[in-house]
């Protein structure tokens, strides 16, 4: 079986896009605050402390060794940092609903276009540069990062987003 490191990242992107879909439709009010905080916690932890670590510490490093310098990788890291700034801003403004909606919208736009660039530009390029052996090495490093993060924790975040997705998205499409 092919241990596809890029596929792993793209599967995580699918979960992240679900979280963004929820943030897009969720009403900012007291009742939904807990769920909003859960999603922000997911972005801080699952996305930034696991997914981005795989990209920055492993994949991007590898691509730089392969001669892919500057440009695309620089932009991705810059956007990761911008995302961290937005998250910090959101966490400071949970009780200011109007500002919170603006910040969530900024987060959605940034992260959705970021994932689009990775899925459609960076990752296909990466796949063409990696040999099967290199892919395997990267995959194993990803596994180690997940173990450090906590395998169960990783799974729990995915389940949380699926649950919220059922609550906010599937419910909405059933009401139509």
Automatic annotation (TrEMBL):
The keyword Oxidoreductase does not apply. Gene3D superfamilies: nmb1532 protein domain like. The keyword Phosphoprotein does not apply. Transmembrane segments: none annotated. Keywords: Coiled coil. It holds the Pfam family Hemerythrin. Residues 80-107 form a coiled coil. Residues 5-126 form the Hemerythrin-like domain. This is Hemerythrin-like domain-containing protein. It comes from Saccharolobus solfataricus (strain ATCC 35092 / DSM 1617 / JCM 11322 / P2).
């Amino acid at each position: 079986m092919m241990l596809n490191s890029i596929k792993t990242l793209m599967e995580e992107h699918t979960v992240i896009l679900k979280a963004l879909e929820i943030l897009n439709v969720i009403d900012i009010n007291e009742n939904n605050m807990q769920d909003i905080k859960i999603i922000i916690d997911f972005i801080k932890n699952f996305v930034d402390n696991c997914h981005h670590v795989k990209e920055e510490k492993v994949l991007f490093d590898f691509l730089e060794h392969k001669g892919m310098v500057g440009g695309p990788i620089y932009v991705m890291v810059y956007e990761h940092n911008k995302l961290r700034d937005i998250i910090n801003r959101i966490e400071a403004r949970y009780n200011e609903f109007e500002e919170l909606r603006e910040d969530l919208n900024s987060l959605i736009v940034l992260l959705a276009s970021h994932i689009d660039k990775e899925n459609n530009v960076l990752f296909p390029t990466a796949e063409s540069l990696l040999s099967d052996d290199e892919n395997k090495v990267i995959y194993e490093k990803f596994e180690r990062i997940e173990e450090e993060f906590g395998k169960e924790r990783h799974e729990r975040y995915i389940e949380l987003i699926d649950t919220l997705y059922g609550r906010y998205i599937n419910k909405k499409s059933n009401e139509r």
